[in-house]
Amino acid sequence: MTDTTLMLIDRPSVVIEARSWLGTPFHHQARVKGVGVDCVGLVLGVGKALGAFDPAFDVLGYPRVPDGSSLMQEAESAMLQIPFEEMQPGDVVMIAFGRDPQHVGILGDYRHGGLSIIHASGGDGNDRVIETRLMFSSVMRFVAAFKLPGVL
Questions:
Q1: Which of 13, 105, 129, 137 maximizes the CB count within 10 A of its CB?
Q2: Which positions ≥6 away from 81 have C-beta within 8 Å?
């Protein structure tokens, strides 16, 4: 994360950059737009492209299904946690499919109202960066929301 040279970033720019990754194939721990990325890599790639993270910053060595406490610790150290009620397009959302937090994505504005999630989807037949309507349920549970550094 950049401390002294933090750039100010507007939320629409975050969404535009995240959407520029749509279609990028899913590859565990990959970080290259158009070539391969996972959910953490998407957040890092978008943040680096906009100057929210130092180009050298990375998070590696996690298993394909991240351990929830490590994922939460990394997110808390790199971004500002915000309440559920304050999340909006351009923020990062952490979700759980099982017991522990294991997935992150970037919020967008869903074309029919509400929020969407832009995320690197792997193992469900999509295996690429996609954007879908955000719908929390007993299967996909909200864990936390974060602002990238420098987002207004």
A1: 129
A2: 75, 144, 145, 146
Kindly report, residue by residue over 35-79, the tens digit of the pLDDT: 999 999 999 999 999 999 999 999 988 888 777 789 999 999 999
CB 141 within 8 A of CB 125: no
Helix (H, G, I), strand (E, B) or coil at 137: coil
Name the helix (H) or strand (E) containing 43.
helix 39-50
Looking at the chain, the number of H-run helices and the number of E-run strands are 3, 8
Give yes or no for a contact between 96 and 143, defined as CB atoms under 8 angstroms apart.
yes
Q: What separation, in Å, do the N-terminal and C-terminal C-alpha atoms of the chain show? A: 16
* Domain residue extents for the chain: 11-147
- Under 8 Å between Cβ of 120 and 39: yes
CA dihedral 97, 98, 101, 106 (to 10 degrees): 0
- Top-level class of domain 11-147: alpha beta
Does pLDDT of 4 surpass 50?
A: no
Close Cβ partners of 26 (under 8 Å, ≥ 6 residues apart)? 36, 37, 38, 120, 121, 122, 123, 126, 127, 128, 129
